[in-house]
Specification:
Helix content is 37%, strand content 19%. By secondary structure, the chain is an alpha/beta fold. A hairpin with a 6-residue loop joins β2 and β3. Bound molecules: adenosine-5'-diphosphate (ADP) and magnesium ion (MG).
Amino acid sequence: MHPDEPLAKYFRLIAPQQSALRRLGILTVRDLLYHFPSRHERAGASASTEQLVPGTKVTLVGQLSKLEAKRLWKSRRPATEGWFTDESGRVKVMWFNQPYMAKMAPQEVPVRLTGTVGGSAEKPYITNPEVVAVTAGDLASGLFKTDNEAEARLEIFPIYPETRGITSKWFYHALKRIFEAKGHEIEDPLPADIRERYHLPDLATSFLWMHVPEEERHAQAARKRFAFEEIFTIQVSRAKDRAENAALPSFRITDAASHAETFLKTIPFEPTNAQKRAIAEIITDFEKPHPMARLLEGDVGSGKTLVAAASAYAVVHSRPPGRISGTLQVAYMAPTEILATQHFQSFIEYFKDLPINIALITGSGARKFPSKSKRGAATDISRAQLLKWIANGEIAMLVGTHALIQKKVGFQHLAYAIVDEQHRFGTRQRRELAHKGDAAPHFLSMTATPIPRTLALTLYGDLDLSILDELPPGRAKIETRIIMPKERAKAYEKMHEELEKGRQAYVICPRINEPDPAKMNALQAKSAKAEALRLQKDVFPEYEVGLLHGGMKPREKDAVMEKFDRGEIHILVATSVVEVGINVPNATVIMIEGAERFGLAQLHQLRGRVQRSTHTPFCFLLPESKGEMTMKRLKALEKSSDGFKLAEADLETRGAGDLYGTRQWGMSDLGIEALQNVRLIQAARGEAMSLVEGDPTLARHSVLLRRVAAAGALHRE
Ligand code: ADP
Ligand code: MG
């Protein structure tokens, strides 16, 4: 079997299996080998029939008997029923809608059974279990220990992430066939000396130890190896990006320091020390002949826009090389139309006395400042006209959404690209921007998402870091409180008080629509739509309640945001779309429903929405459940206002999950788990940097290069 041939060539796949595999991104033999179990379990260790807890998932080892196909008493739906016996007793098993299990499941032989406990503690049963027979025949491949076979095989086994249409059992058998076949071997991307230094098993051994381990320590060694491989691969790709970037030509920005200083004199406040430091770091980069690649990380409200504006100001004062008129160009990309529009307004405010043109481009149109007809105002213009002016250099500063990186947008001298909330943008978009000009632009990425250090070192290994670790003075400290159901009325009272003082409020809900009642676990999550109706009718009839969610059209969203901005909407009920950068200083209360559904860093960002002014802001967290873990996590938020600390706590308490978009960047559970291991991250980073330094194009590491290229398609796109 060739590793890069499609699985369909070697396996007969039924339609549901095909679509399940496609969903998991498993197309080839290689993909399947790299599809790792989410965990390894010790057989039998998970539970015995004596101590079953309803609602939990268990694995039991024993025998099935008396399996019978029947119809359920009330619904008349087909099912299989029978008994499962282990050393400590027996329990009823049921397969709904699977009458064929009566014939198919092996009876009176040792099996491993994995399923969910239903019923009550007194009368439990197991529903829809997966069954794997553990017979001597299964062990004959020679892959497994041969002495005391049954037990050796049972010692530890892999559990694959569950997906509709395909079972752990299928993975187990398919992988077994691959291991038995010839030619499936893949060359090891990890250089041997690195493997030796960290005692990592080679690739072939690691696949075996991952998928069919004989011993727990083997499974662990394989997990460690693949975690290292994943992090190392990302690090190598970042080190390569960094080296490539450092070799490109860029625009030299002249007199940047004095221009920035002039700009700072025009604003009505004193920049914080952190802002001054970040501006200085950027300006130092501007004077080098190669493009800056920098990440500006600062909590919500730390004033990142000012840093962007001061540096952009210097750029729009620079002439293109060899020219006596015109200016270099700046592009500022924001993740939403609302934000792009807000920033367009801010930049008009900042730069209104300069003889330059500022423009806005979004999915719904284009605007330009100053207007020819209305002095001191912006005006709608046609897209075609704007594109012309961008191309001939007349627009010095362009603000926009993704629309800004479309093919049709061509700059004359794009010298500086700023991306706000960069976790929404990746290397690809950055490259696209870079290709828009004759030299690579200086690049500044800004984010308010506090990222754990290990993640920053990994995913942003190609960027230099500037941190705003200081809020502008005079900000009142936010009061964060966990509100239990019986205190809800009190929270509304507080909200009333604030509204009466003329302030505004956010109510954040985890869902857009009323849940589909069939989906059990979504049942409780409050929906923004229903909550907006309820608040308007029952709780705040005398105030205007507005609704904002990701399902709305950009124009609708803008209209609502503008109304909220003008104070015509008093309470804005929203999904987490307000998470990124919306700025309404008059809002002083935020109430977060289903708070436990959000990550700590995300909650921290949400509450930052009300930390814009000098009034004491309030954040009410309303959890829907009160498990120990939920309370512990939310209490961390009550106590700490340090985004970075919360980010670290997130990493520990949420474990794998869509942490900071890690999933979106293609990181596996294993890689995410590894982010908790500072030593592993540092080792992988150190090795990656020295390898790329010695072999910048990876010409002498072709297997690794292919691995990096394959991963590059996923990471940070
Ligand atoms: P963020 O880092 O979240 O993007 P913003 O740039 O939107 O923060 O700044 C938040 C608010 O703080 C804005 O209203 C801005 O004008 C104000 N601000 C920024 N820097 C300072 C400062 N040094 N002193 C006082 N206010 C500031
Ligand atoms: Mg911002």
